[in-house]
Specification:
about 110 residues; mainly alpha; Four Helix Bundle (Hemerythrin (Met), subunit A); 3 helices; 2 strands; elongated
Length: about 110
């Protein structure tokens, strides 16, 4: 079974489950620093936006930093998805996409 909060259920073999778990763990470890930096930059952006005299240029520069980090996270997520699809059969991939079309979209893990 593959799933978790918000993830669809598939009847995966134990070997598939182990491979998927290993892929997710590898990518989570790889992205830990990027996610930490993203959250820090988002916090800074909120502070800048909510400042009494918000500096428009500074806010836009900060948003650019946040956007670049999000793009990096998306690229990594797409890489992970390709790796995970190699573990699944074509039918399982089809089931996965039919059950939850948006489940392949990254969340803030």
């Amino acid at each position: 079974m593959m799933g978790g909060y918000g993830a669809p259920r598939l009847d995966l073999s134990e070997a598939q489950q182990e491979k998927v778990f290993a892929i997710r763990l590898q990518h989570r470890s790889k992205n830990f620093g990027t996610m930490t930096k993203l959250r820090s930059e988002m916090f800074q952006l909120r502070r800048m936006i909510n400042a009494e005299n918000a500096d428009s240029k500074g806010v836009l520069e900060q948003q650019k930093k946040v956007g670049e980090l999000r793009r990096a996270m998306l690229a990594s997520h797409l890489e992970m998805r390709k790796e995970m699809e190699k573990v699944l059969t074509p039918e399982e991939v089809k089931q996965l996409r039919a059950q939850r079309p948006g489940w392949w979209v990254p969340d803030d893990e």
